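Researcher: I'd like a structural prediction for the single chain below. Treat it as a standalone chain; there are no partners to consider.
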Amino acid sequence: MTAPADTTPKKLLGFWDLMSISLGQIIGTGVVVLTGISISMTGYGAPWAFLMALAIVAIPSLCIAALGSAVPSTGGNYTYVRDLLGHKTAFVYLALLVAGQLVLASFAIGFAEYADALMPGMNMKLVAASIMILCYLANLAGIKTAAHFQAMMVVVLIFFSLAVYRLWPF
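Model: Treating it as a single chain, here is the predicted structure.
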């Protein structure tokens, strides 16, 4: 008789790796890139809009965190939708998830706009495309490399933000 295979997912990322990925997603498009758009749409209501968005995002995030700790599995949220709601619903969820990933280009465009503000005359399309390719290559290198790259990009984005808004004396 053979011993049963261990089906517990292997832990690849630590706390700081996960924190850098989360910060990158929040700071990248949510705070740095979309703040100007939210102010133009809501004016003085922008802080209230961010708080409302926080409340809306917190509810499913807490559910996903609870599921992730109670029923660890590979495949992320898709697996939970498939197992709990069926294959057809999981397909719709996956299609919406893929469509939502198209928004990731806003990070590269935001990066290019900040780079252009620091060094005017740059080809912003080339900068944005280069960043997208760099992110793609970092993800191909593995989850650990992608997490470290994300942490580095958060630092670069904060640096660009402080430089553009002249909050850092350099």
